[in-house]
Design brief:
Layout (H helix, E strand, L loop, with lengths): L1 H15 L10 H19 L3 E6 L7 H16 L3 E6 L4 H11 L29
Parallel strand pairs: 1-2
Helix pairs in contact: 1-2
Length: 130
Amino acid sequence: MQACRRDTFFSALLAAAGVIDPGLTTNAKRRFALMCRLREQLLLRRGTIVVLLCDEAQRLSTDALEWLRDVHDQLQRQGSRLITFLVGQPKLLERKAEHDHRGVRCHLGLLHPLVQREENQALTRLPQPP
């Protein structure tokens, strides 16, 4: 089951980057295709920063987070940056605490909710600062 979730994550990340190739059957091939696409887009736009927003990030596996970190490190070695925003439920805070407790170096900054609301209450407008 873990491999299935990992493959789904990788496939979704590649699709979001605009890479759709059924021939990408290994993680090494997927990573290479993603890096090529990111480099291509950075050159096209004359940029050095890739911003990635991951919603429901509490559901990401440790493998997925490690994969993102590998992509970050590889881009950094090439003179670019990957800035990843992880958005999710409180379980994401628990996962960060677990990593901190185990001494794992974690570059994860978390934003706390701006508004506390009931579970079934929709947020229809942004709160105004005091």
